Amino acid sequence: MEKRLVQKNKKAGLTISDVILVGVLLATGAVLKFFVGSMFNAGMKPNFIIAMYCLAILIIKPRLSEAIIIGIIAGAICQVFPGTPYINIISEPLGALVMALLISLPIKFRAYSLLKPVLATFLSTLASGLTYLGVLYIAFYAGADVKAIPFNMFSIIILATALANAVIVQILYIPVKLALGRGRDD
């Protein structure tokens, strides 16, 4: 008997169903940001759009360039909401890139496989939030007309958002993946 090799074809790009999934998840994140975010009045609101692009990236596993495009679209959606203009167009692609890099790590531990959604989402949200904060302070000190809120207030909101996003993605990952017929395990 000859040894049979199973060859997995590499994806050429996002499929139509991938694009629709990203659109639906980003729209869901926008709705959450609008309604749940309206309960916060600390100058900066939690960004659930990050959770949704993290979930999309986990499920569709895009190439790095595609993940950056997802981040740019997420940043553009964030421009609809009140806040500091244009900063999300920088912070969200970086968060999406971090997410794509973290899920592409060739770590084969079962525990990592189970915790990948929570860990990757938490770190991606931190990357996005800290980038947002850094760009905001750079703009403030460069003389731009932006309101700089104290670092401790920002950091609390960033950490709380990272935790909330990590929990949301961990809870939704397997059910959404199964509902879409994308298999149970990575």
From TrEMBL:
InterPro entries: TrpP
Membrane-crossing residue ranges in chain numbering: 12-36, 42-60, 67-87, 93-111, 118-141, 153-174
Keywords: Membrane, Transmembrane, Transmembrane helix
Protein name, per record: Uncharacterized protein
